[in-house]
Known about the structure:
Elements: H1 2-23, H2 26-37, E1 50-54, H3 56-59, H4 87-96, H5 98-101, E2 106-109, E3 113-115, E4 135-141, H6 148-160, E5 164-169, E6 189-190, H7 201-204, E7 214-215, H8 227-235, H9 239-253, H10 259-274, E8 278-281, H11 289-309, E9 321-324, E10 336-338, E11 343-345, E12 353-356, H12 359-362, H13 367-378, E13 386-389, H14 407-416, E14 420-424, H15 450-455, H16 457-475, H17 477-481, E15 483-488, E16 492-500, E17 503-511, E18 516-521, E19 531-534, E20 539-542, E21 547-552, E22 556-561
Parallel strand pairs: 1-2, 1-14, 2-5, 5-8, 8-9, 9-12, 12-13, 13-14
Antiparallel strand pairs: 3-4, 6-7, 10-11, 15-16, 16-17, 17-22, 18-21, 19-20, 19-22
Helix pairs in contact: 4-6, 10-11, 14-16
Amino acid sequence: MQKLLIAVILAFLFITCKQAEKKATPEQSVVAERIEIEKPKPPFVWEGANIYFLLTDRFHNGDTSNDVNFERTNETGVLRGFMGGDIKGIIQKINEGYFTELGVNAIWFTPVVEQIHGDTDETTENTYGYHGYWTKDWTSLDPNFGTKEDLKTLVKSAHSKDIRILMDVVLNHTGPMTPKDPVWPAEWVREEPICQFTTYENTTSCALVENLPDVLTESDASVKLPDALLAKWKAEGRLRQELDELELFFERTGYSRSPRAYIIKWLVDYVGDYGIDGYRVDTVKHADEKSWAELYEQASYAFNTWKKKNPDEVLDENQFYMMGEVYNYGISGGREFDFGDQKVDYYNYGFNSLINFELKQDAKGDYETIFKKYNKLLNTKLKGKSVVNYLTSHDDGEPFDKAREHPIKTANVLLLTPGVSQIYYGDESARDLTIEGSVGDATLRSYMNWQEIDSLESTQKILSHWKKLGQFRNNHPAVGAGKHKRLGKRPYVFSRTYNKGDIIDKVVVGLELPKGKKSLWVKGFFGDGTKLYDTYSATEVVVQNGKVTLENDNDIALLELAK
Protein backbone atom coordinates (compact mmCIF):
# COMPACT_ATOMS: atom_id res chain seq x y z
CA MET A 1 0.00 0.00 0.00
CA GLN A 2 2.84 2.36 0.91
CA LYS A 3 4.67 1.66 -2.39
CA LEU A 4 1.44 2.35 -4.33
CA LEU A 5 1.00 5.70 -2.54
CA ILE A 6 4.57 6.76 -3.35
CA ALA A 7 4.09 5.82 -7.00
CA VAL A 8 0.92 7.93 -7.22
CA ILE A 9 2.67 10.95 -5.66
CA LEU A 10 5.63 10.66 -8.06
CA ALA A 11 3.30 10.41 -11.04
CA PHE A 12 1.41 13.50 -9.89
CA LEU A 13 4.64 15.48 -9.52
CA PHE A 14 5.84 14.40 -12.98
CA ILE A 15 2.59 15.53 -14.63
CA THR A 16 2.62 18.83 -12.72
CA CYS A 17 6.20 19.58 -13.85
CA LYS A 18 5.36 18.81 -17.47
CA GLN A 19 2.35 21.13 -17.33
CA ALA A 20 4.49 23.89 -15.84
CA GLU A 21 7.01 23.46 -18.65
CA LYS A 22 4.27 23.81 -21.25
CA LYS A 23 2.95 26.99 -19.60
CA ALA A 24 6.40 28.61 -19.40
CA THR A 25 6.86 31.40 -21.93
CA PRO A 26 9.76 31.23 -24.40
CA GLU A 27 11.30 34.21 -22.57
CA GLN A 28 11.18 32.36 -19.24
CA SER A 29 12.80 29.31 -20.79
CA VAL A 30 15.62 31.42 -22.26
CA VAL A 31 16.19 33.15 -18.91
CA ALA A 32 16.30 29.81 -17.09
CA GLU A 33 18.80 28.46 -19.60
CA ARG A 34 20.94 31.62 -19.37
CA ILE A 35 21.00 31.51 -15.58
CA GLU A 36 22.10 27.89 -15.72
CA ILE A 37 25.04 28.48 -18.09
CA GLU A 38 26.09 32.02 -17.17
CA LYS A 39 29.51 32.11 -15.51
CA PRO A 40 30.33 34.58 -12.73
CA LYS A 41 32.45 37.55 -13.81
CA PRO A 42 36.09 37.23 -12.79
CA PRO A 43 37.17 39.96 -10.34
CA PHE A 44 38.88 42.87 -12.07
CA VAL A 45 41.67 45.04 -10.69
CA TRP A 46 43.57 47.53 -12.83
CA GLU A 47 46.89 46.47 -11.27
CA GLY A 48 46.51 43.09 -12.97
CA ALA A 49 44.74 44.17 -16.16
CA ASN A 50 45.39 42.58 -19.55
CA ILE A 51 45.37 45.49 -22.02
CA TYR A 52 45.23 45.09 -25.80
CA PHE A 53 46.82 47.99 -27.70
CA LEU A 54 45.94 48.50 -31.36
CA LEU A 55 46.38 51.07 -34.09
CA THR A 56 42.81 51.95 -35.04
CA ASP A 57 43.69 52.29 -38.74
CA ARG A 58 45.59 48.99 -38.88
CA PHE A 59 43.41 46.55 -36.95
CA HIS A 60 40.20 45.80 -38.85
CA ASN A 61 38.16 47.61 -41.50
CA GLY A 62 34.53 47.52 -40.43
CA ASP A 63 33.29 50.20 -42.83
CA THR A 64 34.90 50.60 -46.26
CA SER A 65 32.75 53.66 -47.05
CA ASN A 66 34.90 55.87 -44.78
CA ASP A 67 38.32 54.84 -46.10
CA VAL A 68 39.08 58.14 -47.89
CA ASN A 69 38.26 61.61 -46.52
CA PHE A 70 39.54 65.18 -47.01
CA GLU A 71 41.04 64.13 -50.38
CA ARG A 72 43.80 62.19 -48.67
CA THR A 73 44.86 60.53 -51.90
CA ASN A 74 48.53 61.49 -52.30
CA GLU A 75 51.02 58.68 -52.62
CA THR A 76 52.82 57.92 -49.35
CA GLY A 77 55.77 55.90 -48.17
CA VAL A 78 55.26 52.21 -47.32
CA LEU A 79 52.77 51.88 -44.42
CA ARG A 80 52.45 55.68 -44.10
CA GLY A 81 48.93 56.20 -45.42
CA PHE A 82 45.46 55.29 -44.19
CA MET A 83 44.61 51.61 -44.67
CA GLY A 84 40.95 51.50 -43.60
CA GLY A 85 40.86 50.28 -40.01
CA ASP A 86 38.17 51.97 -37.94
CA ILE A 87 36.06 51.93 -34.77
CA LYS A 88 33.46 49.69 -36.39
CA GLY A 89 36.22 47.16 -37.05
CA ILE A 90 37.06 47.06 -33.34
CA ILE A 91 33.37 46.67 -32.50
CA GLN A 92 33.06 43.72 -34.88
CA LYS A 93 35.95 41.90 -33.21
CA ILE A 94 34.51 42.63 -29.76
CA ASN A 95 31.16 41.16 -30.78
CA GLU A 96 32.83 38.14 -32.39
CA GLY A 97 34.48 37.41 -29.03
CA TYR A 98 38.06 37.82 -30.24
CA PHE A 99 39.16 39.86 -27.23
CA THR A 100 37.23 37.70 -24.78
CA GLU A 101 38.91 34.54 -26.09
CA LEU A 102 42.27 36.28 -25.66
CA GLY A 103 41.52 37.12 -22.03
CA VAL A 104 41.64 40.85 -22.74
CA ASN A 105 39.81 43.03 -20.22
CA ALA A 106 40.83 46.48 -21.51
CA ILE A 107 41.35 47.88 -25.01
CA TRP A 108 43.61 50.86 -25.74
CA PHE A 109 43.33 52.23 -29.27
CA THR A 110 45.25 55.06 -30.91
CA PRO A 111 43.60 58.53 -30.96
CA VAL A 112 40.50 58.92 -33.11
CA VAL A 113 40.05 62.71 -33.01
CA GLU A 114 40.21 64.63 -36.28
CA GLN A 115 43.68 64.54 -37.81
CA ILE A 116 45.44 67.02 -40.10
CA HIS A 117 43.98 66.84 -43.61
CA GLY A 118 47.25 67.07 -45.50
CA ASP A 119 50.36 64.91 -45.63
CA THR A 120 53.87 65.74 -44.56
CA ASP A 121 57.29 64.61 -45.73
CA GLU A 122 58.42 63.23 -42.38
CA THR A 123 61.60 61.10 -42.82
CA THR A 124 61.60 62.13 -46.52
CA GLU A 125 58.44 60.09 -47.11
CA ASN A 126 54.93 61.46 -47.44
CA THR A 127 52.90 60.57 -44.35
CA TYR A 128 49.29 61.10 -43.30
CA GLY A 129 48.05 61.14 -39.72
CA TYR A 130 46.81 57.55 -39.88
CA HIS A 131 48.29 56.90 -36.41
CA GLY A 132 46.07 59.46 -34.70
CA TYR A 133 48.75 61.59 -33.00
CA TRP A 134 48.47 64.62 -35.31
CA THR A 135 45.42 66.44 -33.99
CA LYS A 136 43.63 69.13 -35.97
CA ASP A 137 40.41 69.34 -33.92
CA TRP A 138 40.00 67.75 -30.48
CA THR A 139 36.22 68.25 -30.59
CA SER A 140 35.61 66.07 -33.65
CA LEU A 141 36.31 62.47 -34.58
CA ASP A 142 38.16 61.85 -37.81
CA PRO A 143 35.72 60.34 -40.34
CA ASN A 144 38.41 57.85 -41.36
CA PHE A 145 38.02 56.32 -37.90
CA GLY A 146 34.28 56.73 -37.52
CA THR A 147 31.62 58.82 -35.79
CA LYS A 148 30.79 59.74 -32.22
CA GLU A 149 27.89 57.30 -32.46
CA ASP A 150 30.44 54.60 -33.35
CA LEU A 151 32.48 55.53 -30.27
CA LYS A 152 29.38 55.30 -28.10
CA THR A 153 28.62 51.86 -29.53
CA LEU A 154 32.24 50.79 -28.99
CA VAL A 155 32.07 51.53 -25.27
CA LYS A 156 28.68 49.82 -24.90
CA SER A 157 29.86 46.75 -26.82
CA ALA A 158 33.05 46.48 -24.79
CA HIS A 159 31.23 46.92 -21.49
CA SER A 160 28.77 44.19 -22.45
CA LYS A 161 31.78 41.84 -22.61
CA ASP A 162 33.26 43.17 -19.34
CA ILE A 163 36.02 44.97 -21.26
CA ARG A 164 37.16 48.49 -20.35
CA ILE A 165 38.00 51.18 -22.90
CA LEU A 166 41.16 53.29 -22.72
CA MET A 167 41.25 56.32 -24.98
CA ASP A 168 44.65 57.54 -26.19
CA VAL A 169 44.94 61.29 -25.62
CA VAL A 170 47.42 63.93 -26.79
CA LEU A 171 47.59 67.19 -24.86
CA ASN A 172 51.05 68.58 -25.53
CA HIS A 173 51.12 69.04 -29.31
CA THR A 174 49.00 69.63 -32.41
CA GLY A 175 49.55 68.03 -35.79
CA PRO A 176 52.27 69.29 -38.17
CA MET A 177 51.76 72.16 -40.55
CA THR A 178 50.87 71.34 -44.16
CA PRO A 179 49.44 73.44 -47.02
CA LYS A 180 46.01 72.29 -45.79
CA ASP A 181 46.77 72.69 -42.08
CA PRO A 182 48.08 76.08 -40.90
CA VAL A 183 49.78 76.41 -37.52
CA TRP A 184 47.67 77.27 -34.45
CA PRO A 185 47.96 80.87 -33.15
CA ALA A 186 51.22 81.88 -31.44
CA GLU A 187 49.49 82.29 -28.06
CA TRP A 188 48.55 78.58 -28.25
CA VAL A 189 51.74 76.90 -29.48
CA ARG A 190 55.49 77.31 -29.93
CA GLU A 191 57.51 75.96 -32.84
CA GLU A 192 60.91 76.33 -31.18
CA PRO A 193 63.23 75.61 -29.53
CA ILE A 194 63.46 71.93 -30.47
CA CYS A 195 63.76 69.67 -27.41
CA GLN A 196 67.29 68.62 -26.39
CA PHE A 197 66.26 66.08 -23.70
CA THR A 198 69.14 66.91 -21.34
CA THR A 199 67.28 68.94 -18.69
CA TYR A 200 63.73 69.34 -17.38
CA GLU A 201 63.37 72.70 -19.12
CA ASN A 202 64.61 71.61 -22.56
CA THR A 203 62.37 68.53 -22.42
CA THR A 204 59.09 70.14 -21.33
CA SER A 205 59.13 73.68 -22.78
CA CYS A 206 60.04 72.92 -26.37
CA ALA A 207 58.84 71.38 -29.62
CA LEU A 208 59.28 67.63 -29.58
CA VAL A 209 60.55 67.59 -33.17
CA GLU A 210 60.65 70.07 -36.03
CA ASN A 211 57.23 70.96 -37.46
CA LEU A 212 55.29 69.57 -34.50
CA PRO A 213 53.94 72.67 -32.73
CA ASP A 214 54.07 72.33 -28.93
CA VAL A 215 51.07 73.45 -26.88
CA LEU A 216 51.93 76.02 -24.20
CA THR A 217 50.68 73.73 -21.45
CA GLU A 218 52.60 75.59 -18.73
CA SER A 219 50.83 78.87 -19.47
CA ASP A 220 47.90 80.17 -17.40
CA ALA A 221 47.29 83.11 -19.74
CA SER A 222 43.82 83.29 -21.24
CA VAL A 223 43.71 82.92 -25.01
CA LYS A 224 41.06 83.35 -27.68
CA LEU A 225 39.73 80.45 -29.67
CA PRO A 226 41.33 80.22 -33.13
CA ASP A 227 39.26 81.85 -35.90
CA ALA A 228 39.59 78.70 -38.02
CA LEU A 229 38.06 76.56 -35.26
CA LEU A 230 35.17 79.00 -34.71
CA ALA A 231 34.49 79.06 -38.45
CA LYS A 232 34.53 75.27 -38.55
CA TRP A 233 32.06 74.97 -35.66
CA LYS A 234 29.80 77.53 -37.33
CA ALA A 235 29.86 75.66 -40.65
CA GLU A 236 28.99 72.44 -38.81
CA GLY A 237 26.11 74.10 -36.96
CA ARG A 238 27.48 73.67 -33.43
CA LEU A 239 29.08 77.03 -32.62
CA ARG A 240 26.52 78.04 -29.98
CA GLN A 241 26.59 74.64 -28.30
CA GLU A 242 30.40 74.55 -28.09
CA LEU A 243 30.60 78.08 -26.68
CA ASP A 244 27.87 77.41 -24.11
CA GLU A 245 29.60 74.25 -22.93
CA LEU A 246 32.90 76.07 -22.57
CA GLU A 247 31.20 78.77 -20.52
CA LEU A 248 29.81 76.17 -18.12
CA PHE A 249 33.16 74.37 -17.88
CA PHE A 250 35.16 77.47 -16.99
CA GLU A 251 32.47 78.62 -14.59
CA ARG A 252 32.51 75.27 -12.75
CA THR A 253 36.29 74.80 -12.64
CA GLY A 254 37.45 78.35 -12.17
CA TYR A 255 40.29 77.70 -14.64
CA SER A 256 41.70 80.48 -16.76
CA ARG A 257 41.01 80.06 -20.46
CA SER A 258 44.50 78.70 -21.11
CA PRO A 259 45.39 76.41 -24.01
CA ARG A 260 45.66 73.36 -21.74
CA ALA A 261 42.30 74.09 -20.07
CA TYR A 262 40.50 74.21 -23.43
CA ILE A 263 42.06 70.91 -24.51
CA ILE A 264 41.32 69.27 -21.15
CA LYS A 265 37.66 70.26 -21.54
CA TRP A 266 37.52 68.77 -25.03
CA LEU A 267 39.18 65.53 -23.95
CA VAL A 268 37.04 64.90 -20.87
CA ASP A 269 33.88 65.38 -22.94
CA TYR A 270 34.45 61.87 -24.34
CA VAL A 271 34.50 60.50 -20.81
CA GLY A 272 31.35 62.32 -19.72
CA ASP A 273 29.45 61.55 -22.91
CA TYR A 274 30.36 57.89 -23.44
CA GLY A 275 31.79 56.43 -20.24
CA ILE A 276 35.41 55.98 -21.37
CA ASP A 277 37.06 54.07 -18.48
CA GLY A 278 40.52 55.57 -18.68
CA TYR A 279 43.23 57.34 -20.65
CA ARG A 280 46.56 56.36 -22.07
CA VAL A 281 48.37 59.70 -22.05
CA ASP A 282 50.88 60.41 -24.81
CA THR A 283 54.25 62.21 -24.36
CA VAL A 284 53.81 62.81 -20.63
CA LYS A 285 57.26 64.28 -19.94
CA HIS A 286 56.74 66.96 -22.59
CA ALA A 287 54.21 68.90 -20.53
CA ASP A 288 54.42 70.20 -16.99
CA GLU A 289 52.90 68.05 -14.24
CA LYS A 290 50.00 70.32 -13.30
CA SER A 291 48.51 69.65 -16.73
CA TRP A 292 48.19 65.97 -15.88
CA ALA A 293 46.82 66.61 -12.40
CA GLU A 294 44.09 68.82 -13.89
CA LEU A 295 43.37 66.33 -16.67
CA TYR A 296 42.92 63.53 -14.14
CA GLU A 297 40.76 65.68 -11.86
CA GLN A 298 38.39 66.67 -14.65
CA ALA A 299 38.30 63.20 -16.22
CA SER A 300 37.44 61.72 -12.82
CA TYR A 301 34.67 64.28 -12.38
CA ALA A 302 33.29 63.44 -15.83
CA PHE A 303 33.54 59.68 -15.18
CA ASN A 304 31.72 59.87 -11.86
CA THR A 305 29.04 62.09 -13.41
CA TRP A 306 28.56 59.57 -16.22
CA LYS A 307 28.24 56.76 -13.68
CA LYS A 308 25.48 58.59 -11.82
CA LYS A 309 23.58 59.21 -15.07
CA ASN A 310 24.07 55.64 -16.35
CA PRO A 311 23.90 53.31 -13.32
CA ASP A 312 22.88 50.31 -15.43
CA GLU A 313 26.02 50.58 -17.56
CA VAL A 314 28.56 50.81 -14.73
CA LEU A 315 30.93 47.84 -14.66
CA ASP A 316 32.30 48.16 -11.13
CA GLU A 317 33.44 50.59 -8.45
CA ASN A 318 36.84 51.31 -10.00
CA GLN A 319 37.74 54.96 -10.38
CA PHE A 320 38.90 56.56 -13.62
CA TYR A 321 42.23 55.04 -14.69
CA MET A 322 45.16 56.93 -16.17
CA MET A 323 48.36 55.41 -17.56
CA GLY A 324 51.17 57.51 -18.91
CA GLU A 325 53.87 57.25 -21.54
CA VAL A 326 56.98 58.79 -19.99
CA TYR A 327 59.37 57.77 -22.74
CA ASN A 328 62.23 55.61 -21.41
CA TYR A 329 60.78 55.33 -17.90
CA GLY A 330 61.80 52.02 -16.32
CA ILE A 331 60.44 50.21 -13.28
CA SER A 332 63.86 50.23 -11.58
CA GLY A 333 63.53 53.99 -11.14
CA GLY A 334 60.61 53.47 -8.79
CA ARG A 335 58.18 56.35 -8.70
CA GLU A 336 60.52 58.97 -10.16
CA PHE A 337 61.70 59.85 -13.64
CA ASP A 338 65.12 61.48 -13.82
CA PHE A 339 65.49 64.40 -16.25
CA GLY A 340 69.17 64.80 -15.39
CA ASP A 341 68.82 68.00 -13.39
CA GLN A 342 65.66 67.07 -11.49
CA LYS A 343 63.35 64.15 -10.81
CA VAL A 344 59.56 64.04 -11.13
CA ASP A 345 57.14 61.62 -9.48
CA TYR A 346 54.34 61.46 -12.05
CA TYR A 347 52.35 59.14 -9.80
CA ASN A 348 51.63 62.23 -7.69
CA TYR A 349 49.86 63.89 -10.61
CA GLY A 350 47.02 61.53 -11.41
CA PHE A 351 48.77 58.53 -12.94
CA ASN A 352 47.86 55.06 -11.71
CA SER A 353 50.61 53.49 -13.79
CA LEU A 354 53.40 54.33 -16.21
CA ILE A 355 54.44 52.35 -19.26
CA ASN A 356 57.56 50.36 -18.38
CA PHE A 357 60.28 50.44 -21.07
CA GLU A 358 62.47 47.99 -19.14
CA LEU A 359 60.80 44.61 -19.65
CA LYS A 360 62.07 44.17 -23.22
CA GLN A 361 65.59 43.96 -21.79
CA ASP A 362 64.62 41.92 -18.73
CA ALA A 363 62.88 39.41 -21.00
CA LYS A 364 66.27 38.15 -22.18
CA GLY A 365 66.84 36.63 -18.74
CA ASP A 366 65.27 33.67 -16.96
CA TYR A 367 61.72 33.69 -15.67
CA GLU A 368 62.46 33.71 -11.92
CA THR A 369 64.89 36.62 -12.19
CA ILE A 370 62.24 38.67 -13.99
CA PHE A 371 59.33 37.74 -11.73
CA LYS A 372 61.30 38.19 -8.50
CA LYS A 373 62.54 41.64 -9.55
CA TYR A 374 59.07 42.93 -10.49
CA ASN A 375 57.45 41.44 -7.40
CA LYS A 376 59.96 43.20 -5.16
CA LEU A 377 59.70 46.62 -6.84
CA LEU A 378 55.89 46.61 -7.01
CA ASN A 379 55.68 45.76 -3.33
CA THR A 380 58.32 48.28 -2.17
CA LYS A 381 59.19 51.37 -4.26
CA LEU A 382 55.91 51.24 -6.21
CA LYS A 383 53.59 49.88 -3.54
CA GLY A 384 50.02 50.99 -4.25
CA LYS A 385 50.85 51.82 -7.88
CA SER A 386 51.72 49.75 -10.95
CA VAL A 387 53.50 49.67 -14.29
CA VAL A 388 52.27 48.67 -17.74
CA ASN A 389 54.62 46.06 -19.19
CA TYR A 390 55.10 45.58 -22.92
CA LEU A 391 57.46 43.75 -25.27
CA THR A 392 56.34 45.34 -28.56
CA SER A 393 54.88 48.75 -29.37
CA HIS A 394 54.14 51.17 -32.19
CA ASP A 395 57.23 53.34 -31.73
CA ASP A 396 59.88 51.16 -30.07
CA GLY A 397 62.27 50.15 -32.82
CA GLU A 398 63.97 47.58 -30.58
CA PRO A 399 61.25 45.25 -29.31
CA PHE A 400 62.07 42.01 -27.49
CA ASP A 401 61.52 39.64 -30.41
CA LYS A 402 61.35 41.69 -33.61
CA ALA A 403 61.89 38.63 -35.81
CA ARG A 404 59.02 36.81 -34.03
CA GLU A 405 61.22 33.80 -33.32
CA HIS A 406 60.06 33.36 -29.71
CA PRO A 407 56.29 34.00 -29.61
CA ILE A 408 55.71 31.49 -26.78
CA LYS A 409 58.34 32.99 -24.48
CA THR A 410 56.98 36.43 -25.36
CA ALA A 411 53.56 35.33 -24.11
CA ASN A 412 54.95 33.72 -20.96
CA VAL A 413 57.03 36.74 -19.98
CA LEU A 414 54.44 39.36 -20.86
CA LEU A 415 51.38 37.69 -19.37
CA LEU A 416 53.04 36.26 -16.25
CA THR A 417 55.26 39.15 -15.15
CA PRO A 418 53.78 41.05 -12.17
CA GLY A 419 52.16 44.32 -13.22
CA VAL A 420 49.76 45.28 -16.00
CA SER A 421 50.30 43.53 -19.34
CA GLN A 422 50.00 45.29 -22.70
CA ILE A 423 49.58 43.07 -25.75
CA TYR A 424 50.46 44.94 -28.95
CA TYR A 425 48.12 43.94 -31.75
CA GLY A 426 49.60 40.94 -33.52
CA ASP A 427 51.84 39.84 -30.66
CA GLU A 428 49.42 36.97 -30.20
CA SER A 429 49.66 35.98 -33.88
CA ALA A 430 53.34 36.79 -34.57
CA ARG A 431 52.44 39.61 -36.99
CA ASP A 432 55.47 40.51 -39.14
CA LEU A 433 57.44 43.50 -37.83
CA THR A 434 60.00 43.61 -40.65
CA ILE A 435 58.12 44.93 -43.67
CA GLU A 436 60.26 45.41 -46.77
CA GLY A 437 60.47 48.99 -47.97
CA SER A 438 59.19 50.54 -44.75
CA VAL A 439 61.21 53.22 -42.98
CA GLY A 440 61.48 53.78 -39.22
CA ASP A 441 58.60 52.85 -36.95
CA ALA A 442 56.28 52.24 -39.94
CA THR A 443 57.54 48.64 -40.04
CA LEU A 444 55.94 48.06 -36.62
CA ARG A 445 52.54 49.15 -37.93
CA SER A 446 51.53 46.69 -40.60
CA TYR A 447 47.91 45.62 -41.01
CA MET A 448 46.69 42.93 -38.60
CA ASN A 449 47.41 39.47 -40.02
CA TRP A 450 43.86 38.11 -40.01
CA GLN A 451 44.52 35.97 -43.09
CA GLU A 452 47.31 34.08 -41.33
CA ILE A 453 45.11 33.60 -38.27
CA ASP A 454 42.42 32.09 -40.48
CA SER A 455 44.67 29.87 -42.60
CA LEU A 456 48.02 28.99 -41.01
CA GLU A 457 48.14 26.16 -38.49
CA SER A 458 51.41 27.52 -37.04
CA THR A 459 49.79 30.88 -36.35
CA GLN A 460 46.72 29.22 -34.84
CA LYS A 461 48.95 27.20 -32.50
CA ILE A 462 50.67 30.36 -31.27
CA LEU A 463 47.32 32.10 -30.82
CA SER A 464 45.96 29.14 -28.86
CA HIS A 465 48.79 29.47 -26.34
CA TRP A 466 48.15 33.21 -25.93
CA LYS A 467 44.43 32.56 -25.42
CA LYS A 468 44.95 30.01 -22.66
CA LEU A 469 47.43 32.20 -20.86
CA GLY A 470 45.34 35.35 -21.37
CA GLN A 471 42.15 33.77 -20.07
CA PHE A 472 44.00 32.44 -17.01
CA ARG A 473 45.33 35.93 -16.32
CA ASN A 474 41.91 37.50 -16.81
CA ASN A 475 40.28 35.02 -14.44
CA HIS A 476 42.90 35.54 -11.73
CA PRO A 477 43.99 38.97 -10.48
CA ALA A 478 46.70 37.13 -8.54
CA VAL A 479 48.67 36.64 -11.78
CA GLY A 480 49.35 40.33 -12.40
CA ALA A 481 48.54 41.97 -9.09
CA GLY A 482 49.43 39.22 -6.60
CA LYS A 483 52.58 38.43 -4.65
CA HIS A 484 55.05 36.06 -6.28
CA LYS A 485 56.87 33.17 -4.60
CA ARG A 486 58.96 30.39 -6.07
CA LEU A 487 57.81 26.96 -4.90
CA GLY A 488 60.10 24.70 -6.93
CA LYS A 489 63.33 25.18 -8.84
CA ARG A 490 63.30 22.06 -11.04
CA PRO A 491 60.78 21.87 -12.44
CA TYR A 492 60.17 25.60 -12.08
CA VAL A 493 56.97 26.23 -10.10
CA PHE A 494 55.74 29.46 -8.54
CA SER A 495 52.68 30.79 -6.76
CA ARG A 496 50.80 34.08 -6.88
CA THR A 497 48.50 35.31 -4.10
CA TYR A 498 46.12 38.27 -4.17
CA ASN A 499 44.28 39.24 -1.00
CA LYS A 500 42.56 42.59 -0.93
CA GLY A 501 39.08 43.56 0.16
CA ASP A 502 36.62 40.82 -0.74
CA ILE A 503 38.97 39.22 -3.27
CA ILE A 504 41.16 36.27 -2.30
CA ASP A 505 42.86 34.56 -5.21
CA LYS A 506 45.57 31.87 -5.34
CA VAL A 507 47.20 30.19 -8.34
CA VAL A 508 50.23 28.07 -9.15
CA VAL A 509 52.12 28.08 -12.46
CA GLY A 510 54.73 25.68 -13.80
CA LEU A 511 57.07 26.61 -16.67
CA GLU A 512 59.78 24.78 -18.63
CA LEU A 513 58.26 21.48 -17.55
CA PRO A 514 59.50 18.14 -18.91
CA LYS A 515 57.42 16.13 -21.35
CA GLY A 516 55.47 13.15 -20.07
CA LYS A 517 54.91 12.57 -16.37
CA LYS A 518 55.89 15.42 -14.05
CA SER A 519 55.39 16.40 -10.43
CA LEU A 520 54.86 20.04 -9.39
CA TRP A 521 55.75 21.02 -5.84
CA VAL A 522 52.93 22.99 -4.14
CA LYS A 523 53.63 22.17 -0.48
CA GLY A 524 52.95 25.05 1.88
CA PHE A 525 50.61 26.69 -0.62
CA PHE A 526 47.93 24.09 -1.36
CA GLY A 527 47.38 21.39 1.25
CA ASP A 528 47.13 17.64 0.64
CA GLY A 529 43.72 16.61 -0.63
CA THR A 530 43.11 19.94 -2.38
CA LYS A 531 41.54 19.53 -5.81
CA LEU A 532 43.23 21.67 -8.47
CA TYR A 533 42.50 22.20 -12.15
CA ASP A 534 45.18 22.71 -14.81
CA THR A 535 43.46 25.07 -17.23
CA TYR A 536 46.15 24.56 -19.86
CA SER A 537 45.55 20.81 -20.27
CA ALA A 538 41.99 20.81 -18.88
CA THR A 539 42.98 18.25 -16.25
CA GLU A 540 41.83 17.92 -12.63
CA VAL A 541 44.44 16.80 -10.10
CA VAL A 542 44.66 16.29 -6.34
CA VAL A 543 47.50 17.40 -4.10
CA GLN A 544 49.27 14.41 -2.56
CA ASN A 545 52.42 14.59 -0.45
CA GLY A 546 52.82 18.25 -1.31
CA LYS A 547 52.76 17.64 -5.06
CA VAL A 548 50.44 17.33 -8.03
CA THR A 549 51.20 14.99 -10.90
CA LEU A 550 50.44 15.64 -14.55
CA GLU A 551 51.13 13.51 -17.60
CA ASN A 552 51.20 15.34 -20.94
CA ASP A 553 53.65 16.91 -23.38
CA ASN A 554 53.00 20.49 -22.27
CA ASP A 555 55.87 22.50 -20.81
CA ILE A 556 53.44 24.71 -18.89
CA ALA A 557 50.76 24.20 -16.24
CA LEU A 558 48.25 26.78 -15.02
CA LEU A 559 46.74 25.57 -11.74
CA GLU A 560 43.69 26.98 -10.00
CA LEU A 561 41.32 25.63 -7.36
CA ALA A 562 38.91 23.17 -8.94
CA LYS A 563 35.35 24.47 -9.12
